[in-house]
Design goal:
By secondary structure, this protein is mainly α. The chain has one domain (16-209). It has helices at residues 2-16, 29-34, 39-62, 72-94, 96-102, 113-121, 128-158, 180-209, and strands at residues 160-161, 164-165. Strand 1 and strand 2 form a beta hairpin. The longest helix is centred in the last third of the chain and has 31 residues, at 128-158.
């Protein structure tokens, strides 16, 4: 029992740090660059993606022995599309303004390579519990990544955080931060930072072994 809990926790945590879908695997770049101009958009996209990840992984794992290999990708896409539609309707019902702000990028969750990739690489080969833990970890990792970009871009681009003014009236917003160019710049800076952290941890481990 103890071993199962440890394994489940490892599966959960790897998506947040070791195999972060954005900062390590560099997947799902379209929403990462497009919707992270505000904290609210980032949070909603992260939650919606996590919801679709968890639900699709659950059903892919549940039906993994029943879905013929010849139609597995089409079946996975149908499952994913079902929960993307559910997520879109929920967002629309809760906040029409956020729904309009995110636009087509909610529907594009269907083709997010993180979700289809986890369905094919993990959920289709593991039991339901492990598949759900993997999906939760990857979803949390994705949400952490988009929120990291959203905080920096909104703070420097508008001087606000979730719409709340942070700096005084004398602050001059960096308009480029809420434009596409700013998204690439902030993403590049975060990628450099995480690569530096990984290299540092690797060197520390090598010193301990020696």
């Amino acid at each position: 029992m103890k071993m199962e809990e440890t394994t489940s926790m490892d599966i959960l945590l790897k998506g947040i740090w070791k195999e972060n879908p954005v900062f390590v695997q560099v997947l799902g770049m379209c929403p990462v660059l497009a919707v992270t101009n505000s904290v609210i958009n980032s949070i909603v996209m992260g939650i919606a993606t996590t919801f679709v990840l968890v639900m699709s992984s659950f059903f892919v794992s549940l039906f993994r022995k029943l879905i013929p290999r010849q139609v597995r990708i089409a079946s996975y896409i149908m499952i994913i599309a079902t929960f993307v539609t559910v997520a879109e309707y929920i967002i629309q019902a809760v906040s029409l303004e956020v729904h309009k702000s995110l636009g087509a990028f909610i529907s594009l969750i269907v083709v997010n390579c993180i979700i289809l990739g986890r369905a094919e690489a993990f959920a289709s080969k593991h039991p339901v519990k492990e598949a759900v833990m993997d999906a939760l970890g990857m979803g949390a990792g994705f949400t952490f990544a988009v929120l990291s970009l959203g905080v920096v871009r909104e703070l420097l681009g508008n001087g606000t955080l979730a719409g709340i003014p942070i700096f005084g009236p004398g602050f001059e917003p960096w308009s480029i931060m809420i434009l596409p160019g700013g998204a690439f710049f902030v993403l590049g800076a975060w990628l450099l930072f995480f690569n530096w952290l990984r290299e540092r941890a690797k060197k520390q481990q090598e010193r301990v072994v020696v």
